[in-house]
Amino acid sequence: MAAIETDFIFDMWEAMKPLVPAKDKMEAAERIIKLCDDYGISKTDIEEMTENDKILETAFDRYFVDDYEDEDDEWDEYDE
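The chain above was modelled as a monomer; its predicted structure follows.
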């Protein structure tokens, strides 16, 4: 079911993106990523949705930046 949800969200983003001023596109993309997360769409499904759009991809990376830092910390534990 998530694939249908993310397909719909991506299609809506593609339809609305030309109407959003360039200076506001990143903020709009970040809000979409946050809403997807708030509505319980898995991180994996959100990431797959962003793969073909640089703006959504950047918004995804910014939103989940803390998750990547936690993963790095886990690897650091094994290096000690």
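The chain has one domain: 2-79.
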